[in-house]
Amino acid sequence: MKRVFSGIKPTGHLTLGNYLGAMRRWVAVDQHQADALFSVVDLHALTVEHDPARVRRLSRQAATLLLAVGLDPERCTVFVQSHVDEHARLSYLLECVATDGEMRRMIQYKEKAVRERARGGSVRLSLLTYPVLMAADILAYGTDEVPVGEDQAQHVELARDVAVRFNQRYGHTFVVPRATSPGVAARVMNLQEPTSKMGKSDDVGPGIVYLLDEPDVVRKKVMRAVTDSGRDVVYDREERPGVANLLEILAACTGGNPEALSGVYESYGALKKDTAEAVVEVLRPVQQRHKELCADPGYVEGVLRDGADRARAMARPTVDAAYRAIGLLPAP
Length: 332
Ligand code: TYM
What we know:
The chain has helices at residues 16-33, 52-68, 86-95, 100-104, 107-118, 125-139, 153-170, 215-223, 241-254, 258-262, 268-294, 297-326; strands spanning 3-8, 35-40, 77-80, 145-147, 178-180. The chain is mainly α.
Protein backbone atom coordinates (compact mmCIF):
# COMPACT_ATOMS: atom_id res chain seq x y z
CA MET A 1 0.00 0.00 0.00
CA LYS A 2 1.34 3.43 -0.82
CA ARG A 3 2.29 5.79 2.00
CA VAL A 4 0.83 9.30 2.14
CA PHE A 5 1.93 12.13 4.44
CA SER A 6 0.65 15.67 4.75
CA GLY A 7 0.60 18.41 7.33
CA ILE A 8 -1.03 21.61 8.42
CA LYS A 9 0.67 24.44 10.24
CA PRO A 10 -1.03 25.98 13.31
CA THR A 11 -0.23 29.61 12.53
CA GLY A 12 -3.85 30.74 12.25
CA HIS A 13 -7.40 29.48 12.07
CA LEU A 14 -7.86 26.96 9.29
CA THR A 15 -9.39 28.31 6.10
CA LEU A 16 -11.54 27.25 3.22
CA GLY A 17 -8.30 27.19 1.20
CA ASN A 18 -6.82 24.57 3.53
CA TYR A 19 -10.00 22.54 3.25
CA LEU A 20 -10.59 22.66 -0.50
CA GLY A 21 -6.91 22.59 -1.44
CA ALA A 22 -5.87 19.73 0.80
CA MET A 23 -7.95 18.40 3.71
CA ARG A 24 -11.00 17.44 1.70
CA ARG A 25 -8.99 15.02 -0.40
CA TRP A 26 -7.24 13.58 2.65
CA VAL A 27 -10.70 12.63 3.89
CA ALA A 28 -12.34 11.55 0.64
CA VAL A 29 -9.43 9.76 -1.02
CA ASP A 30 -6.13 9.43 0.81
CA GLN A 31 -7.27 7.85 4.06
CA HIS A 32 -9.10 5.15 2.07
CA GLN A 33 -6.49 4.41 -0.55
CA ALA A 34 -3.25 4.68 1.35
CA ASP A 35 -1.47 4.16 4.60
CA ALA A 36 -1.82 7.84 5.48
CA LEU A 37 -0.46 10.17 8.15
CA PHE A 38 -1.70 13.69 8.83
CA SER A 39 0.15 15.95 11.18
CA VAL A 40 -0.34 19.25 12.94
CA VAL A 41 3.14 20.56 12.21
CA ASP A 42 3.61 22.77 15.24
CA LEU A 43 7.40 23.06 14.95
CA HIS A 44 6.81 24.89 11.68
CA ALA A 45 4.65 27.44 13.51
CA LEU A 46 7.73 28.59 15.44
CA THR A 47 9.48 29.89 12.33
CA VAL A 48 7.79 33.29 12.51
CA GLU A 49 6.97 35.63 15.39
CA HIS A 50 4.63 33.63 17.64
CA ASP A 51 2.78 33.63 20.92
CA PRO A 52 3.31 30.33 22.80
CA ALA A 53 -0.21 30.15 24.22
CA ARG A 54 -1.74 30.87 20.81
CA VAL A 55 0.31 28.17 19.08
CA ARG A 56 -0.80 25.67 21.70
CA ARG A 57 -4.44 26.68 21.28
CA LEU A 58 -4.27 26.61 17.49
CA SER A 59 -2.54 23.21 17.53
CA ARG A 60 -5.35 21.73 19.59
CA GLN A 61 -7.92 23.36 17.35
CA ALA A 62 -6.23 22.14 14.16
CA ALA A 63 -6.09 18.58 15.51
CA THR A 64 -9.77 18.75 16.44
CA LEU A 65 -10.62 20.08 12.98
CA LEU A 66 -8.69 17.29 11.28
CA LEU A 67 -11.08 14.89 12.98
CA ALA A 68 -14.09 17.16 12.42
CA VAL A 69 -13.60 17.21 8.64
CA GLY A 70 -13.73 13.44 8.67
CA LEU A 71 -10.30 11.92 9.17
CA ASP A 72 -10.92 8.59 10.85
CA PRO A 73 -8.24 7.50 13.34
CA GLU A 74 -9.14 3.89 12.56
CA ARG A 75 -8.08 4.47 8.96
CA CYS A 76 -5.19 6.91 9.26
CA THR A 77 -2.70 8.34 11.74
CA VAL A 78 -3.35 11.82 13.13
CA PHE A 79 -0.64 13.31 15.32
CA VAL A 80 1.28 16.40 16.40
CA GLN A 81 4.74 16.81 14.87
CA SER A 82 6.56 17.84 18.06
CA HIS A 83 5.39 14.63 19.78
CA VAL A 84 7.60 12.62 17.47
CA ASP A 85 11.31 13.46 17.92
CA GLU A 86 12.27 11.81 14.66
CA HIS A 87 11.28 14.91 12.67
CA ALA A 88 13.83 17.14 14.37
CA ARG A 89 16.46 14.39 14.41
CA LEU A 90 16.18 13.81 10.69
CA SER A 91 15.94 17.51 9.90
CA TYR A 92 19.49 18.05 11.13
CA LEU A 93 20.87 15.30 8.91
CA LEU A 94 19.09 16.78 5.92
CA GLU A 95 20.59 20.19 6.71
CA CYS A 96 23.88 18.47 5.99
CA VAL A 97 22.63 17.53 2.52
CA ALA A 98 20.65 20.61 1.43
CA THR A 99 22.40 23.87 0.55
CA ASP A 100 21.82 27.44 1.64
CA GLY A 101 21.37 28.44 -2.01
CA GLU A 102 18.45 26.06 -2.31
CA MET A 103 16.85 27.53 0.79
CA ARG A 104 17.23 31.12 -0.36
CA ARG A 105 15.54 30.32 -3.68
CA MET A 106 12.31 29.19 -2.01
CA ILE A 107 9.41 31.48 -2.91
CA GLN A 108 7.72 31.19 0.47
CA TYR A 109 10.94 32.05 2.26
CA LYS A 110 11.40 35.17 0.15
CA GLU A 111 7.80 36.28 0.69
CA LYS A 112 7.76 35.61 4.41
CA ALA A 113 11.16 37.12 5.04
CA VAL A 114 9.99 40.34 3.40
CA ARG A 115 6.85 40.28 5.55
CA GLU A 116 8.75 39.70 8.78
CA ARG A 117 11.14 42.54 8.01
CA ALA A 118 8.28 44.86 7.07
CA ARG A 119 6.78 44.20 10.49
CA GLY A 120 10.01 45.39 11.98
CA GLY A 121 11.07 41.92 13.11
CA SER A 122 14.11 39.86 12.28
CA VAL A 123 14.03 36.68 10.22
CA ARG A 124 14.44 33.49 12.24
CA LEU A 125 17.01 31.04 10.98
CA SER A 126 14.31 28.36 11.17
CA LEU A 127 12.35 30.23 8.49
CA LEU A 128 15.27 29.68 6.13
CA THR A 129 15.58 25.99 7.01
CA TYR A 130 11.79 25.42 7.06
CA PRO A 131 11.82 23.34 3.84
CA VAL A 132 14.40 20.98 5.33
CA LEU A 133 12.17 20.22 8.30
CA MET A 134 9.32 19.70 5.87
CA ALA A 135 11.50 17.31 3.86
CA ALA A 136 12.21 15.45 7.10
CA ASP A 137 8.47 15.19 7.82
CA ILE A 138 7.96 13.59 4.45
CA LEU A 139 11.08 11.41 4.14
CA ALA A 140 10.92 9.98 7.68
CA TYR A 141 7.86 7.95 6.71
CA GLY A 142 8.96 6.57 3.35
CA THR A 143 6.24 8.71 1.82
CA ASP A 144 5.20 8.06 -1.78
CA GLU A 145 2.68 10.89 -2.14
CA VAL A 146 2.21 14.29 -0.53
CA PRO A 147 -1.28 15.72 -1.13
CA VAL A 148 -0.95 19.51 -0.93
CA GLY A 149 -2.25 22.72 -2.48
CA GLU A 150 -0.28 24.36 -5.26
CA ASP A 151 1.68 26.64 -2.91
CA GLN A 152 3.58 23.67 -1.43
CA ALA A 153 4.77 22.21 -4.75
CA GLN A 154 8.22 23.83 -4.55
CA HIS A 155 8.78 22.50 -1.03
CA VAL A 156 7.88 18.96 -2.07
CA GLU A 157 10.22 19.30 -5.04
CA LEU A 158 13.00 20.18 -2.59
CA ALA A 159 12.21 17.08 -0.53
CA ARG A 160 12.60 15.04 -3.71
CA ASP A 161 15.95 16.64 -4.53
CA VAL A 162 17.24 16.06 -1.01
CA ALA A 163 16.10 12.42 -1.03
CA VAL A 164 17.78 11.74 -4.36
CA ARG A 165 21.02 13.43 -3.24
CA PHE A 166 21.13 11.59 0.08
CA ASN A 167 20.50 8.26 -1.65
CA GLN A 168 23.23 8.92 -4.21
CA ARG A 169 25.80 9.91 -1.62
CA TYR A 170 25.06 7.52 1.21
CA GLY A 171 23.16 4.61 -0.31
CA HIS A 172 19.48 4.06 -0.81
CA THR A 173 17.67 5.24 2.33
CA PHE A 174 14.66 7.32 1.32
CA VAL A 175 11.66 6.83 -0.92
CA VAL A 176 11.50 9.72 -3.40
CA PRO A 177 8.10 11.38 -2.85
CA ARG A 178 5.87 13.27 -5.24
CA ALA A 179 3.26 15.98 -4.69
CA THR A 180 -0.36 15.45 -5.66
CA SER A 181 -2.85 18.30 -5.93
CA PRO A 182 -6.58 18.62 -6.49
CA GLY A 183 -7.73 19.38 -10.05
CA VAL A 184 -9.87 22.26 -8.89
CA ALA A 185 -9.26 24.70 -6.01
CA ALA A 186 -5.55 23.88 -5.77
CA ARG A 187 -5.09 27.58 -5.06
CA VAL A 188 -8.06 29.29 -3.44
CA MET A 189 -7.60 33.05 -3.58
CA ASN A 190 -8.34 35.76 -1.03
CA LEU A 191 -11.85 37.08 -1.68
CA GLN A 192 -10.71 40.69 -1.23
CA GLU A 193 -7.45 40.27 -3.15
CA PRO A 194 -8.09 37.59 -5.74
CA THR A 195 -4.52 37.70 -7.00
CA SER A 196 -3.19 36.49 -3.61
CA LYS A 197 -3.65 33.13 -1.96
CA MET A 198 -6.22 32.78 0.83
CA GLY A 199 -3.67 32.24 3.62
CA LYS A 200 -4.53 31.64 7.27
CA SER A 201 -1.88 33.97 8.64
CA ASP A 202 -2.68 36.86 6.29
CA ASP A 203 -3.95 40.22 7.36
CA VAL A 204 -6.81 40.57 4.90
CA GLY A 205 -9.40 39.01 7.25
CA PRO A 206 -12.60 39.85 5.33
CA GLY A 207 -11.22 37.99 2.32
CA ILE A 208 -10.61 34.78 4.23
CA VAL A 209 -13.31 32.23 4.99
CA TYR A 210 -12.43 30.30 8.13
CA LEU A 211 -13.76 26.80 8.70
CA LEU A 212 -15.36 27.92 11.93
CA ASP A 213 -16.99 31.09 10.55
CA GLU A 214 -20.71 31.31 11.35
CA PRO A 215 -23.00 30.92 8.29
CA ASP A 216 -23.87 34.61 8.23
CA VAL A 217 -20.23 35.60 8.36
CA VAL A 218 -19.52 33.28 5.43
CA ARG A 219 -22.41 34.78 3.46
CA LYS A 220 -21.22 38.30 4.12
CA LYS A 221 -17.63 37.54 3.10
CA VAL A 222 -18.66 35.81 -0.12
CA MET A 223 -21.26 38.44 -1.08
CA ARG A 224 -18.62 41.15 -0.61
CA ALA A 225 -15.99 39.34 -2.65
CA VAL A 226 -14.13 41.59 -5.06
CA THR A 227 -14.98 40.78 -8.65
CA ASP A 228 -14.39 43.27 -11.43
CA SER A 229 -16.30 45.80 -13.50
CA GLY A 230 -17.40 43.29 -16.16
CA ARG A 231 -20.88 41.82 -16.03
CA ASP A 232 -20.81 38.47 -17.78
CA VAL A 233 -19.69 35.42 -15.86
CA VAL A 234 -16.64 33.91 -17.59
CA TYR A 235 -13.97 31.57 -16.23
CA ASP A 236 -10.63 33.27 -16.84
CA ARG A 237 -8.05 33.09 -14.04
CA GLU A 238 -5.80 35.72 -15.63
CA GLU A 239 -8.28 38.37 -16.69
CA ARG A 240 -11.08 37.74 -14.18
CA PRO A 241 -9.39 36.35 -11.07
CA GLY A 242 -12.21 37.26 -8.65
CA VAL A 243 -14.96 35.59 -10.65
CA ALA A 244 -12.73 32.60 -11.48
CA ASN A 245 -12.06 32.14 -7.76
CA LEU A 246 -15.79 32.10 -6.96
CA LEU A 247 -16.42 29.62 -9.79
CA GLU A 248 -13.64 27.37 -8.47
CA ILE A 249 -14.95 27.51 -4.92
CA LEU A 250 -18.48 26.74 -6.10
CA ALA A 251 -17.22 23.91 -8.32
CA ALA A 252 -15.15 22.43 -5.51
CA CYS A 253 -18.07 22.59 -3.07
CA THR A 254 -20.65 21.12 -5.44
CA GLY A 255 -18.51 18.66 -7.39
CA GLY A 256 -18.96 20.72 -10.59
CA ASN A 257 -16.61 22.19 -13.14
CA PRO A 258 -15.79 25.93 -13.09
CA GLU A 259 -15.87 26.30 -16.87
CA ALA A 260 -19.28 24.63 -17.16
CA LEU A 261 -20.66 26.59 -14.20
CA SER A 262 -19.69 29.89 -15.82
CA GLY A 263 -22.35 29.22 -18.47
CA VAL A 264 -25.07 28.80 -15.85
CA TYR A 265 -24.87 32.32 -14.36
CA GLU A 266 -25.94 35.60 -15.87
CA SER A 267 -24.94 37.86 -12.98
CA TYR A 268 -22.26 38.08 -10.33
CA GLY A 269 -24.94 38.41 -7.65
CA ALA A 270 -26.48 35.02 -8.41
CA LEU A 271 -23.06 33.40 -8.58
CA LYS A 272 -22.09 34.86 -5.19
CA LYS A 273 -25.35 33.80 -3.59
CA ASP A 274 -25.01 30.18 -4.73
CA THR A 275 -21.33 30.10 -3.81
CA ALA A 276 -22.08 31.40 -0.32
CA GLU A 277 -24.77 28.76 0.22
CA ALA A 278 -22.55 26.00 -1.14
CA VAL A 279 -19.78 26.96 1.28
CA VAL A 280 -22.21 27.17 4.21
CA GLU A 281 -23.46 23.66 3.38
CA VAL A 282 -19.94 22.25 3.16
CA LEU A 283 -18.97 23.79 6.49
CA ARG A 284 -22.16 22.90 8.37
CA PRO A 285 -21.30 19.25 9.23
CA VAL A 286 -17.68 20.16 9.98
CA GLN A 287 -18.76 22.78 12.50
CA GLN A 288 -21.30 20.43 14.06
CA ARG A 289 -18.69 17.69 14.50
CA HIS A 290 -16.16 20.22 15.80
CA LYS A 291 -18.59 21.26 18.51
CA GLU A 292 -19.13 17.64 19.54
CA LEU A 293 -15.40 16.97 19.66
CA CYS A 294 -14.76 20.08 21.74
CA ALA A 295 -17.10 18.62 24.31
CA ASP A 296 -14.91 15.52 24.49
CA PRO A 297 -11.28 16.72 24.73
CA GLY A 298 -10.21 13.39 26.23
CA TYR A 299 -11.11 11.67 22.98
CA VAL A 300 -8.99 14.03 20.88
CA GLU A 301 -6.08 13.66 23.29
CA GLY A 302 -6.32 9.87 23.05
CA VAL A 303 -6.27 10.01 19.27
CA LEU A 304 -3.15 12.20 19.35
CA ARG A 305 -1.42 9.90 21.84
CA ASP A 306 -2.06 6.80 19.73
CA GLY A 307 -1.18 8.73 16.60
CA ALA A 308 2.19 9.81 17.98
CA ASP A 309 2.97 6.23 19.09
CA ARG A 310 2.16 4.88 15.66
CA ALA A 311 4.03 7.65 13.85
CA ARG A 312 7.13 7.17 16.01
CA ALA A 313 7.19 3.46 15.29
CA MET A 314 6.92 4.14 11.57
CA ALA A 315 9.58 6.87 11.43
CA ARG A 316 12.23 5.38 13.69
CA PRO A 317 13.63 2.65 11.40
CA THR A 318 14.10 5.07 8.50
CA VAL A 319 15.66 7.79 10.63
CA ASP A 320 17.96 5.27 12.34
CA ALA A 321 19.00 3.98 8.92
CA ALA A 322 19.80 7.54 7.83
CA TYR A 323 21.97 8.04 10.95
CA ARG A 324 23.98 4.95 10.10
CA ALA A 325 24.21 5.72 6.37
CA ILE A 326 25.56 9.25 6.86
CA GLY A 327 28.41 8.07 9.07
CA LEU A 328 27.30 8.45 12.69
CA LEU A 329 28.54 5.89 15.17
CA PRO A 330 25.67 3.81 16.55
CA ALA A 331 25.07 4.36 20.27
CA PRO A 332 26.68 1.51 22.26
P1 TYM B 1 -0.31 25.14 5.39
O1 TYM B 1 -0.56 24.91 6.83
O2 TYM B 1 -0.06 26.52 4.91
O3 TYM B 1 -1.52 24.57 4.55
C1 TYM B 1 -2.03 23.26 4.72
C2 TYM B 1 -2.49 22.73 3.38
O4 TYM B 1 -3.48 23.59 2.81
C3 TYM B 1 -3.08 23.98 1.49
N1 TYM B 1 -3.52 25.36 1.27
C4 TYM B 1 -4.23 25.77 0.21
N2 TYM B 1 -4.69 25.12 -0.85
C5 TYM B 1 -5.39 25.83 -1.75
N3 TYM B 1 -5.65 27.16 -1.63
C6 TYM B 1 -5.19 27.85 -0.57
N4 TYM B 1 -5.45 29.13 -0.44
C7 TYM B 1 -4.43 27.15 0.42
N5 TYM B 1 -3.85 27.53 1.58
C8 TYM B 1 -3.28 26.42 2.09
C9 TYM B 1 -1.58 23.89 1.49
O5 TYM B 1 -1.07 23.74 0.19
C10 TYM B 1 -1.35 22.67 2.36
O6 TYM B 1 -1.46 21.49 1.59
N6 TYM B 1 4.43 23.78 4.72
C11 TYM B 1 3.07 23.29 4.89
C12 TYM B 1 2.90 22.37 6.08
C13 TYM B 1 3.79 21.18 6.07
C14 TYM B 1 3.67 20.04 5.25
C15 TYM B 1 4.72 19.16 5.66
C16 TYM B 1 2.81 19.68 4.23
C17 TYM B 1 4.85 20.98 6.89
N7 TYM B 1 5.42 19.74 6.67
C18 TYM B 1 4.90 17.94 5.02
C19 TYM B 1 2.99 18.45 3.60
C20 TYM B 1 4.03 17.59 4.01
C21 TYM B 1 2.16 24.46 5.12
O7 TYM B 1 2.58 25.50 5.54
O8 TYM B 1 0.85 24.18 4.90
